[in-house]
Amino acid sequence: MKNLKLAARTTDARTLIPVGDITLGRDFVVMAGPCSVESEAQTLAAARAVKAAGADLLRGGAFKPRTSPYAFQGLGLEGLKILARAREATGLPIVTEVLDPRDVSWVAEFADILQIGTRNMQNFALLKEVGKASRPVLLKRGMYSTLEEWLNCAEYILSEGNPNVILCERGIRTFETYTRNTLDLSAVPAIKELTHLPIVVDPTHSTGRLSLIGPMSLAAVAAGADGLLIEVHPNPAEALCDADQALTPEMFRDLMARLRSLRAYLEPSTRPDGSPGRGIEETP
Ligand code: PEP
Ligand code: MN
After folding, report:
1. Does 53 sit in the ligand 1 pocket, CB within 6 Å?
2. Which site among 65, 119, 120, 211 is 20 to 30 Å from 264 CA-CA?
3. Tens of pLDDT, residues 164-199
4. For a pocket test of ligand 1, which of 31, 35, 120, 207 has the largest count of ligand atoms closer than 8 A to its C-beta?
5. Domain of residue 31, residue span
6. CB 83 within 8 A of CB 61
7. Does residue 230's CB lie within 6 angstroms of at least one atom of ligand 1?
């Protein structure tokens, strides 16, 4: 991976990205919320529920990349305003997707983290534009992409001057059809060998199955992920997008409790410098 002038790991120092009260790359971070912003009531209910369960950031799409042009495409500007109100109400910073290079500068006025979705991972015009933005970027892995291709896309953002890139493993397409995608958990330790950038795992889009989200979230923690991105909807049956894979607030609360137990088991102590230890690579 000779082309990775900025993304390659050359020392043990890791990129730390402060967002609100937390620091990605140091703290374990949970981003949770609905697939899409549907209304103020739905978004506020989701935001309050995930906050109460201990999430650190609110996720929600105002621009949705849908397979069909006739499917709900998101509320756009109105959705961003709703997210901003949810941030005001809960204090949770927001992560939201941007689809079009022309929208980056004004979406960045609302978002705390700009998300690049799997379908746009290699949209180089978009990558260059978010590379010029003053917000951290959550770069999802392309569904057909190798780790090298993914890291080269991170390099596009870094080379434009934005050092704050968070990678997100969200599953890749394989011959398996039982799951929506195949979660490549080996990407977590592999990415940590290759780069200093933080990596989070999306157990929702990678599995597409409610029953698998919990086990894969726990496995991601054990693999050393820096955080999780999980879809939660106050009433999944009525969700306009990804209804079958959204956790209810109760399911999310239970999962957060299990995650806390696992993390306490894996990190019985803090590091010598007083910062919290993370993942099994830290366990003596
Ligand atoms: C999402 O997070 O809402 C999303 C559309 O995910 P992906 O780009 O991974 O499919
Ligand atoms: Mn979704």
Report:
1. no
2. 211
3. 999 999 999 999 999 999 999 999 999 999 999 999
4. 35
5. 23-266
6. no
7. no
Burial level of 12, CB count in 10 A (0-12/13-18/19+)? exposed
Residue 118 alpha carbon to ligand 1 centre in Å: 6
Contact assessment for residue 72 and residue 35, using Cβ atoms and an 8 Å cutoff? no
Counted domains in the chain = 1
**Residue 61 CB–ligand 1 contact under 6 Å:** yes
Supply 151's token pair.
């890291």
Residue 112 inside a domain? The answer is: yes
Residue 14 lies in a domain: no
The verdict on the CB of residue 170 being under 6 Å from ligand 1 is yes
Whether residue 27 is contained in a domain is answered as yes
Place 282 in a pLDDT band, splitting at 50, 70 and 90. very low
CATH at 238: 3.20.20.70
Query: What pLDDT is recorded for position 251?
Result: 98
Which pTM does this prediction carry? 0.94
In which residue are the tokens 């959204």 written?
A: 246
> Quick check: is 187 in a domain?
yes
